[in-house]
Amino acid sequence: MNTLILTGELWTYLADLNEQAQERLDTIMEQMKATEGVTEELKRTSQMEWVQRCNNIRNRAEEIVLHEMIYS
């Protein structure tokens, strides 16, 4: 990490990591939505349930990304 700071590459590294994490998060969320049946039809017929399930999926997906990319 000190090398990144000294060479001025820390912000580039962090920006790249952030982009990769966001892409991974989006992918995981889409996969979970498909698997769990969280569809536009559900959004149309039961908006509160759709929001709750999307929030739940987002929370679980964020935990996965944190463990895969940040904590490891």
From TrEMBL:
It comes from the Bacteria. InterPro entries: TnpV. This is TnpV protein. It comes from Mordavella massiliensis.
